[in-house]
């Protein structure tokens, strides 16, 4: 944690709780299995306690035996104490001061609670300093304040670097889960949310946290329908996960109408005209019941900014996915004097920052320039992304939708669609086959199309 001038401030801390945590570990090393996931060295207020716990955490991650002898040797090798006598005296003292080893979890909770209270003081000081500098506008300052409070609530670091030990532990756990899944014969395991499009999941390993995913296509290819199909699929599979949809082009009523059409297998014409066969009302009722139960939230504010999105998203519980339709209709808080290329660059950069700060995948739809229309092969390329090369630069994944039957009316494969993964930070680029059912604005797995063809 960064150094602050704390003169005149009653700094929240509990030295007894910090020492009790360390003493409990020295008396029973199995306590580290409970502490390692909730307690980091930076949570400690006293620098000495912070260093000793850091040694213990590293030993735990390395699989070393933890007791007073091994810890004494490790702290001396790292020059945490000036003399062996000082180290022995301190370690022995904190062991004898532990009230109860069985309540080490409660001691750790006190340490974390005091850390968060200190973080609130530091965040407040940063906010005051930023306001006093007078270099940022009010909206930027409000966003700064909201972000800092959000970081505290989510347990993120307010200042300073994160010790590698905690990151290593998280990665080892994730790797162990993948190993167990593979060992149980579950096939290739994805690391993010499943879209339920099997070939796509295998290609991009699902929708991963902090990823900015660009979904682009020429008008009429069905990018909004595909995005809403993904939203519905994720909502069904992960019912405790909240999904936010920002629709800048269509109203929320139009978006939901499309979702009902896909879920109930009701033609878009029937949705518009009301010419609904009597037998379809049962399907409509079932679809309405399914969709109403999903944890999906829709915002159709026109020209919304990234800062406004973040303010709304921070208040959502269990946020797992954000979908934006579409990029070119968004606004920036800054004035670029009509330079739309620079403005879009600023927006995409801030969308990537938002995905990382909120730790959720963000799918952003985007327009394409007219380049594909001018080529014999009309499949989109990265250079076709409209108005900004930074879209490609900031995105973790760039996907294009392409249907040959849209251009070639004699193509018999009217249900065939390609999802071209042109950029993929998680693996190789490539083309994923999909099925397209235009009558119900619905995309399917390619396997279903092949089975129907048989």
Task: Please tell me about this protein's structure.
- The protein has 454 residues and is an alpha/beta fold.
- The chain folds into two domains: 15-169, DNAb Helicase, Chain A (Orthogonal Bundle), CATH 1.10.860.10; 191-453, 3-Layer(aba) Sandwich (Rossmann fold), CATH 3.40.50.
- The chain has 18 helices and nine strands.
- The protein has a nine-stranded mixed β-sheet with strand order 3-2-4-5-1-6-7-8-9, sandwiched between helices.
- Helix 15 (340-358) links the parallel strand 4 (319-325) and strand 5.
- The longest helix is centred in the first third of the chain and has 30 residues, at 104-133.
- Residues 450-454 have low confidence and may be disordered.
The amount of helix comes to 40-55%
| Pattern of helices and strands | HHHHHHHHHEHEHHHEHEHEHEHEEEH
Principal-axes geometry comes out as elongated
Proportion of residues in extended strands: 5-15%
Radius of gyration: 27 Å
Query: What is the CATH superfamily of the largest domain?
Result: P-loop containing nucleotide triphosphate hydrolases
Instruction: Give the CATH topology of the largest domain.
Output: Rossmann fold
Instruction: Count the E strands.
Output: 9
User: How many distinct domains?
Assistant: 2
Q: In the CATH hierarchy, what is the architecture of the largest domain at level 2?
A: 3-Layer(aba) Sandwich
Sheet/helix structural class: alpha/beta
Question: Could you give the order of strands across the largest sheet?
Answer: 3-2-4-5-1-6-7-8-9
What's the total helix number? Answer: 18
Rounded mean pLDDT is 83
Largest sheet: 9 strands, mixed
Report how far the terminal alpha carbons are from each other.
63 Å
């Amino acid at each position: 944690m960064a150094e602050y001038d704390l003169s005149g401030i009653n700094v929240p801390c509990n030295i007894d709780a910090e020492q009790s945590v360390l003493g409990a570990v020295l008396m029973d090393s199995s306590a580290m299995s409970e502490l390692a996931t909730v307690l980091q060295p930076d949570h400690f207020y006293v620098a000495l306690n912070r260093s000793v716990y850091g040694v213990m955490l590293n030993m735990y991650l390395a699989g070393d035996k933890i007791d007073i002898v091994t810890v004494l040797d490790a702290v001396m090798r790292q020059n945490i104490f000036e003399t062996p006598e000082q180290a022995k005296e301190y370690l022995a003292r904190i062991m004898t001061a532990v009230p109860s080893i069985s309540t080490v979890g409660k001691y750790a909770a006190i340490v974390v609670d005091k850390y968060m209270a200190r973080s609130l003081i530091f965040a407040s000081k940063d906010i005051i300093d930023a306001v006093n500098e007078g270099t940022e506008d009010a909206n930027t300052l409000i966003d700064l304040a909201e972000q800092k409070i959000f970081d505290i609530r989510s347990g993120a670091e307010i200042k300073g670097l994160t010790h590698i030990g905690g990151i290593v532990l998280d990665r080892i756990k994730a790797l162990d889960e993948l190993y167990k899944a593979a060992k149980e014969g579950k096939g290739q395991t994805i690391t993010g949310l499943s879209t339920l499009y099997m070939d796509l999941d295998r290609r991009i390993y699902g929708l991963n946290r902090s990823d900015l995913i660009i979904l682009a296509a020429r008008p009429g290819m069905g990018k909004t329908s595909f995005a809403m199909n993904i939203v519905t699929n994720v909502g069904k599979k992960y019912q405790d996960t909240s999904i936010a949809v920002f629709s800048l082009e269509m109203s929320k009523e139009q978006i939901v109408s499309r979702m009902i059409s896909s879920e109930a297998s009701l033609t878009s014409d029937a949705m518009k005209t009301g010419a609904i066969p009597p037998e379809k009302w049962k399907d409509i009722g079932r679809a309405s019941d399914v969709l109403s139960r999903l944890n999906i939230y829709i915002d159709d504010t026109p020209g919304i900014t990234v800062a406004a999105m973040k303010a709304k998203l921070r208040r959502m519980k269990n946020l797992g996915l954000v979908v934006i339709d579409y990029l070119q209709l968004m606004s920036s808080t800054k004035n670029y004097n009509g330079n739309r290329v620079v403005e879009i660059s600023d927006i995409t950069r801030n969308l990537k920052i938002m995905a990382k700060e909120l730790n959720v995948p963000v799918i952003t739809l985007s327009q394409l320039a007219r380049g594909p229309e001018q080529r014999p092969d009309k499949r989109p390329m990265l250079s076709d992304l409209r108005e900004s090369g930074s879209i490609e630069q900031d995105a973790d994944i760039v996907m294009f939708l392409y249907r040959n039957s849209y251009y070639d009316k004699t193509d018999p494969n009217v249900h065939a669609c390609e999802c071209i993964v042109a950029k993929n930070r998680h693996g190789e680029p490539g083309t994923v086959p999909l099925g397209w059912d235009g009558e119900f604005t619905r995309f399917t797995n390619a396997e279903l199309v092949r089975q129907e063809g048989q």
